[in-house]
Specification:
The chain is of the alpha/beta class. It folds into 3 domains: about 5-110 and about 295-310, Rossmann fold, CATH 3.40.50; about 115-205 and about 320-335, 3-Layer(aba) Sandwich (Rossmann fold), CATH 3.40.50.10800; about 210-285, Rossmann fold (3-Layer(aba) Sandwich), CATH 3.40.50.10800. Helix content is about 45%, strand content about 15%. The strands form 3 sheets. Strands 2-1-3-4 form a 4-stranded parallel sheet, with helices on both faces. A 4-stranded parallel sheet has the order 6-5-7-8, sandwiched between helices. The chain has a 4-stranded parallel sheet with strand order 10-9-11-12, sandwiched between helices. It is globular. Bound molecules: iron/sulfur cluster. Iron/sulfur cluster binds near residues 116, 142 and 205.
Amino acid sequence: MTGEELFRKLGGTPIQMALGLYTLEACEGMARDINEIQNLKREKNAVILGHYYIPREITLGVADFVGDSYGLSQDAAKTSADIIVFAAVRFMAETAKILNPQKTVLIPGTDPACSLADSVTPERVRELRTKHPDHTFVCYINTTAAVKAECDVCVTSSNVVDICAAIPNDKIVFVPDRLMGQNVVDLLRSRGINKEVVIYPDGACHVHERFDPGMVKLFLERIPGVQVLAHPECDPEVIKQSHFVGSTTQIIAHIQKYQESQTLLVLTECGLVSSLLVDFPQHKFVGACQMCQYMKSNSLAGILRVLRNPQPCDAVNLDVEVMARARKCIDAMFEYAGKGK
Ligand code: SF4
C-alpha cells in the first residue's frame, strides 16, 4: 500500500471527530508500517483483530477482522492462525485466549484497561453468590477471565436481552454494568418478561455514562426528525429517549436500513461515529465526541512492536483452571445466543 492509497481511504476521515483529518504526510509514514505489518503477519501466520473503537488506520490498514466484542469473539474462535494480535482492550484479548488456549495472543495497546471490566473482582462475585445462591450469574463480556470463571453465562451488548430472556431461571444477578443492568430490566419488561434482576451497583463504562439525558432532550427539541441511536451501556434515561438501542454492529446494520437521508445522533464511542461519517455520507451526524482512551492506546507502532519483538508481558497468560471455568461461561453464551424472544 502506498501513502497515497491510504490517504484516499482515510483522507476524509476525522481522526477522532475533533482532532482534525489525516494528512498525506502522516499516511505516507503509516503506509510504511502497514506494509511491514502485512509482511510480518504472513511470515508469522498471525491475524489482527480490531474493535470498531480503535484508530481507523488499523481497521482499514491491517485488521483481518473488525467488529464488536461478540463478533470478534466468534472470529477468535474460528481462526487457524498461530498468533492473534488483539487490537482492543485486555478483557477481549483474554476472551480470545480462553477460546484459543494453544495460540499466542498479543496485546499491542499501551493502556489496554477498561473502566467497566476493572470495576468488579472475583471476590465481589463470590460475595454476591453467598447472598444469592439461587440466582443465575450473568456477566457482561466486559469482565476479566477471573470474573467470568465465577459466573454462569456471559453476554454481550448484542445478545444480553435475548439471553436474559432465554435463561430458564427467573432470578438473575447481573455484573458489572449498573446502567446496562437497568436497561436489561426495562427491555425485558417491554417484552412482558418480569425477572428478579440483582444489579451489581459499582460498574459503568466511563465513555457511555457521559451521554447526558438532558443533552439528548435538547437535540430532540432543537433538531426535528433527529434519530437517536444508543448503545445499551448508556444511562436508562438516555435509552428511554432513543429510537434504536443496540451494539455497535447492530447500530451499523440499523443505519444501513434507512432508505432516505437522516440526521443521526449516535451515542457510542466516537471511533464508530468517525467511520460512519465516511461510510454513510448521505446522512448527517450530530453530537459530541466521547472517546475511550484505552481503545485509542492501540497504534500501528504498537502492533509492529509486538509482531517484531514480542515481550512476555505482551502475551496473555491465564491460569489453566480459570480458563476452563471461564470457557464454560462463554460457551453458555454461544448456546443461549438466538434462543431469546
Ligand atoms: S468504551 Fe467503555 S466499555 Fe469499551 S473498552 Fe472503553 S471503557 Fe471499556
